[in-house]
Specification:
The protein is built from 2 helices and 20 strands. It is mainly beta. The chain has a single domain, classed as Beta Barrel (Porin), CATH 2.40.160. It has an 18-stranded antiparallel beta barrel. Strand 9 and strand 10 form a beta hairpin.
């Protein structure tokens, strides 16, 4: 009985100590997908893809007057990937998704160090890609400043395969990870100013990529790619306007010279009633019109690219790099069905910014539908997308209309539960 009293007293003591300091929450997100032409036209004789995956997270946060620490543990599981009674996980998907500390330096300054997500503006260039079950993070150090409606972030990152602290290893500081614009070094400056109805930001981002010899062995030095531009927003009453303007220059992975690469977009939104919001927009992304060894193609790097250019991910989601670019013209409508339900409808027409070898530019039209509903403590979202491909799309994806299935579509359903296990913060 004394032991029980001791444990009860210890729990009470911890609870009193952690008031206004400690938080534990989580996420449980299973998603079912039916893929019949997702990312690229599916062949007539190919079976549709189907699968169920789950993202599970547990997040721990602690805040003091002078610092904050945060830890997020994550596992992404495909249903059935492990046999019954398997003694070890086979896909190695368990990971520390975030682990960072933030120190308050005073006078509006702070520093945030460790594994973290980087989300800026509409996430066109830097975003956490929340749609992807694994999502995106960065190992980085940030110096942050915020005063009134102005903020400034300076970010630095350095990646390598293994820490060589002895100095006797032949590995040095090489970084052998390739693909998806995996960088060895990163430096960026981000500034943003807000006014009453208008805001503007500036991003200057430099990424260094490991260089390689002809035989694939890592070489000294890096290729540097510079991305710079602005995001502008205006909102007054029922009208909203936003724009992105970005340029790229330098060298991409493989020491490919980048010259004249750009991204420009303009989006309008109008709330016509309490239940209907209409949208229209255009985005132009430059393609490859340069000589061999050079490119004029822009790539949006580490943004949440699934959010843009159609939910079926035909462009810039692990694909379409150094290609013909893109002209995306889109219309959308968001209907508030009731206090807990929404329906989004979007139509997107795609063309190449550059002509394909045949001279064709028209790629096709995509229709996206998403129904979402909030319940007490959880949410449900259901989506359907249909791609109406033109001749240019089949040429771009290196197939033919005759060899492709008559309908290219994708459907999904996702449940999201975010439990609050403990919250002693004010």
């Amino acid at each position: 009985m004394k032991k029980i009293h001791f444990l009860i007293g210890l729990v009470c003591l911890i609870s009193n100590y952690t008031i206004a300091q400690f938080k534990i929450d989580g996420e449980f997100r299973p998603r079912t997908e039916y893929r019949h032409g997702y990312g690229s036209p599916i062949a007539e004789d190919a079976d549709a893809g189907f699968g169920i995956s789950t993202r599970a997270r547990v997040n721990f946060g602690y805040a003091d007057e002078s610092y904050k620490v945060y830890l997020s543990l994550q596992d992404v599981m495909t249903w059935g990937e492990n046999r019954q009674l398997l003694p070890a996980d086979t896909n190695n998907s368990f990971a520390v998704f975030e682990a960072w500390g933030e120190l308050t330096l005073g006078e509006g300054f702070s520093t945030k160090i460790g594994r973290q997500t980087l989300d800026y503006d509409d996430q066109r260039i830097l975003g956490s890609v929340g749609w992807a079950q694994q999502a995106r993070n960065h190992d980085a150090a940030l110096l942050k400043y915020k005063k009134d409606k102005f903020l400034l972030d300076v970010g630095l990152a350095f990646n390598q395969d293994k820490a060589n602290l002895s100095g006797f290893s032949s590995i040095g500081t090489e970084y052998s990870t390739t693909g998806f614009f995996s960088y060895k070094t990163m430096q960026y400056l981000y500034l943003k100013q807000n006014w009453d109805t208008f805001s503007g930001s500036l991003l200057v981002l430099n990424n260094g990529f490991q260089e390689y010899e002809d035989d694939g062995v890592t070489a000294d030095g890096t290729s540097s790619l510079l991305t710079l531009g602005t995001h502008l927003e205006y909102k007054k009453g029922k009208l909203g306007v936003s724009s992105n303007l970005f340029l790229q220059t330098g060298e991409r992975q493989g020491e490919v010279d980048v010259k004249g690469a750009y991204l420009a977009s303009l989006d309008l939104s109008l709330k016509t009633s309490d239940k209907i919001t209409l949208g229209a927009g255009i985005e132009l992304i430059s393609g490859n019109d340069a000589d061999a060894g050079e490119t004029g193609a822009f790539f949006p790097l580490y943004g949440t690219n699934h959010k843009f250019n159609g939910f079926m991910d035909y462009f810039y989601v692990g694909n379409h790099a150094n290609s013909v670019g893109l002209l995306d013209v889109h219309l959308s409508a968001n209907f508030k069905l009731n206090e807990t339900s929404n329906l989004m409808v979007k139509a997107l027409n795609f063309s190449g910014e550059q002509e394909l070898p045949s001279g064709e530019k028209s790629l096709g039209t995509e229709i996206d539908l998403v129904f979402s509903k909030k319940f007490k403590g959880y949410g449900l979202a259901i989506g359907y997308s249909q791609m109406f491909a033109n001749d240019g799309m089949y040429e771009l994806k290196e197939t033919t209309e005759d060899a492709s299935a008559g309908g290219q579509n994708w459907a999904w359903a996702m449940l999201t539960i975010k439990p609050k296990f403990l919250n002693t913060t004010k």
